[in-house]
Design a protein that fits this description.
single chain; 314 residues; mainly beta; 2 domains; three-stranded antiparallel beta sheet; 3 helices; receptor; non-specific serine/threonine protein kinase; RCC1/BLIP-II; membrane; transmembrane helix
C-alpha cells in the first residue's frame, strides 16, 4: 500500500486493522482538498505549477553565435551567454543592452545608453571599445567594428590588413569577419576593407539591406530580397533562390531567414549545423560549427556541435 507523505507510516501501522481502513478512506477523501493525488504518479497541482514555472524558457530579443559560444539579449535587456568561456567570452557584464555580438574569443554589446561594452580576450585591444554612442557593434576574429549614432564607423583591435581602418561615409550596418570587415552604406551599397586573399572584401555592385562577413566568404541580402555571396568558396554549394530578410555566414556553412520566417542553410553539415529545425524564426546566426535561431515566440534554439554546450541555451 502506498502512503502519502501527509500520514507518517509509524502512526498508520500503530492503529488496529479496522481503524487503519477508516483512516485510509478518510485520507483518500481528503487528498483533493489538500491539493494531493492518491498515488506516486499523481503529483499535486501545486507541484505541477512549481515545475511549470521552473521550466519556463528564457525569452530573448536577439541572439548571436560566436566561434564556440553564443550570447543573447533577454527580454528584460540583460545578457546571457553560454558555451565556451575559456577566455571569459561567455561572462558578459550586467546592465541593460539593446544589441549583442559574439566573436571568436570576445564579445561586445551596445547598452541602453548607446555605449559599447566588450569582454573576453583583449589581445590587440579588440575588447577595448572607444567612447561614444553607437547603434550596432560586430565582434570579429581579432577586431571589432561599430556603427556610431551619426552613421560613421569605428573599428578597434588587431589591424594586420587594415581591418580596423574603415572607409569614410555613413553606414546602417557593419559586420566584422576574420581580418576584414564589410558594411552597408546609407545609399545601400556595400563597402569592404581588410584582407582580400579570396576577394571576400570585393563586393558586387547593387543595393543591399544587410551583409555578413566571416572567415573568407561574405553574403548579403539585396533590396529585392535575393542573396548574393562572394569571396573564397570555402562554403560548399550556392545560396538558395527565393527572398530573404537576413543572412549569416559561419565558418563553413551559411544560414538565411526567408521572408516567410523559415530557415535555409547550406554548406558543411558534418555536425548538423546546416540542418535547421522547422518552424518560424525572426533571426538566425551561424557560428563556428553550430547555429542558433530566435523563434517568433522569443525562445532560442541551437543545433550543430555541442562540445562546449554552445547548442544548449538557457
Amino acid at each position: 500500500m502506498h502512503l502519502h507523505p501527509v500520514c507518517p507510516k509509524s502512526v498508520f501501522e500503530s492503529l488496529p486493522g479496522a481503524a487503519q481502513g477508516l483512516l485510509f478512506l478518510a485520507m483518500v477523501s481528503a487528498l483533493p482538498l489538500l491539493g494531493c493525488g492518491a498515488g506516486e504518479g499523481s503529483p499535486s497541482p501545486l507541484i505541477h505549477r512549481n515545475l511549470s514555472l521552473a521550466s519556463e524558457p528564457t525569452l530573448f530579443t536577439g541572439v548571436n553565435a560566436g566561434s564556440s559560444n553564443n550570447c543573447g539579449v533577454k527580454t528584460d535587456g540583460t545578457l546571457a551567454c553560454w558555451g565556451d568561456d575559456s577566455e571569459g567570452q561567455s561572462s558578459p557584464p550586467t546592465g541593460g543592452f539593446t544589441q549583442i555580438s559574439a566573436g571568436n574569443y570576445h564579445g561586445c554589446g551596445v547598452d541602453t545608453a548607446g555605449a559599447v561594452s566588450c569582454w573576453g580576450n583583449n589581445d590587440g585591444g579588440r575588447a577595448t571599445p572607444p567612447t561614444g554612442s553607437f547603434t550596432q557593434v560586430s565582434a570579429g576574429t581579432a577586431h571589432t567594428c561599430g556603427v556610431k549614432t551619426d552613421g560613421t564607423l569605428a573599428c578597434w583591435g588587431i589591424n594586420s590588413y587594415g581591418e580596423t581602418s574603415p572607409p569614410a561615409g555613413t553606414f546602417t550596418q557593419v559586420s566584422a569577419g576574420m581580418q576584414y570587415s564589410c558594411g552597408v552604406k546609407t545609399n545601400g551599397t556595400v563597402a569592404c576593407w581588410g584582407l582580400n586573399f579570396g576577394r571576400q572584401a570585393s563586393p558586387p555592385a547593387g543595393s543591399f539591406t544587410q551583409v555578413s562577413a566571416s572567415y573568407g566568404s561574405t553574403c548579403g541580402v539585396k533590396t529585392d530580397g535575393t542573396l548574393a555571396c562572394w569571396g573564397f568558396k570555402h562554403v560548399p554549394g550556392s545560396p538558395p533562390t527565393g527572398t530573404f530578410t537576413q543572412v549569416s555566414v559561419g565558418t563553413y556553412h551559411t544560414c538565411a531567414l526567408r521572408q516567410d520566417g523559415t530557415l535555409s542553410c547550406w554548406g558543411a553539415n558534418d555536425q548538423g549545423q546546416a540542418t535547421p529545425p522547422a518552424g518560424l524564426f525572426t533571426q538566425v546566426s551561424a557560428g563556428g560549427f553550430h547555429t542558433c535561431g530566435l523563434r517568433q515566440d522569443g525562445t532560442v534554439e541551437c543545433w550543430g556541435s555541442n562540445f562546449a554546450g554552445q547548442t544548449t541555451p538557457p
